[in-house]
Design goal:
The complex is a heterodimer of chains A (113) and B (111). With 113 residues, chain A is mainly beta. Chain A is built from no helices and eleven strands. In chain A, the strands form two sheets. In chain A, strands 2, 4, 5, 6, 9, 10 and 11 form a seven-stranded mixed sheet that branches. In chain A, strands 1-3-8-7 form a four-stranded antiparallel sheet, with no helix packed on it. With 111 residues, chain B is mainly β.
Chain lengths: 113, 111
């Protein structure tokens, strides 16, 4: 079955460490997105990519970095510069058309202590 | 970026219809209206989308105002499984890529 996979589901890190969240899709989608969700809040866009080797900052990119070396993969690194990294992180993908729906992964819950 | 406005919360009784409103007064002519819903600790799930005409699928119906400045997601018979946060977003046909989600509407369904 085609889909979008995020791993791991839960991740724990100590403050000051960088951590990388995985996002893989086998839907042959061009565009991929990373969102952050805090308790009781909506989704906020971190980064997005419309094509391999290219990506753009969303509304809250500070303290995060991404890469898009392959069409299927869009990993997100939460760096030590991110002041409040504990959150629920969601990855999504879609075709490169406004009428195409977003497909979301089931998220990674990151806890930094 | 065009924004959407939704009520924070709504309640419904089981097996009754639910109308979830969304305002998007700055919508452009090429923006599609998309609806998603999210259960706790899960990723959002696509529900329906439309451009100008009303749309129906197995999950819901989408009614779009004639001036396209508002839309309504209609769940014809709410079930307990429909309790979720519902998001209305706009997506440009040319796909500028930046998809902005608002706070969404938390729907409670009472048995």
């Amino acid at each position: 079955d085609g889909g979008i996979t995020q791993s791991p589901k839960y991740l724990f890190r100590k403050e000051g460490q960088n951590v990388t969240l995985s996002c893989e899709q086998n839907l042959n989608h061009d565009a991929m997105y990373w969102y952050r969700q805090d308790p009781g809040q909506g989704l906020r866009l971190i980064y997005y990519s419309q094509i391999v080797n290219d990506f753009q900052k969303g509304d809250i990119a500070e303290g995060y970095s991404v890469s898009r070396e392959k069409k299927e993969s869009f990993p997100l690194t939460v760096t030590s510069a991110q002041k409040n990294p504990t959150a629920f992180y969601l990855c999504a993908s879609s075709m490169f058309q406004g009428s195409s729906p977003l497909h979301f992964g089931n998220g990674t819950r990151l806890t930094v202590t | 970026d065009a924004k959407t406005t939704q009520p924070n919360s709504m309640e419904s009784n089981e097996e009754e219809p639910v109308h979830l409103p969304c305002n998007h007064s700055t919508i452009s002519g090429t923006d599609y209206i998309h609806w998603y819903r999210q259960l706790p600790s899960q990723g959002p799930e696509y529900v329906i989308h439309g451009l100008t005409s009303n749309v129906n699928n197995r999950m819901a119906s989408l009614a779009i105002a004639e001036d396209r400045k508002s839309s309504t997601l209609i769940l014809h018979r709410a079930t307990l499984r429909d309790a979720a946060v519902y998001y209305c977003i706009l997506r440009d046909a040319s796909n500028t890529g930046k998809l902005i989600f608002g706070q969404g509407t938390t729907l409670q369904v009472k048995p």
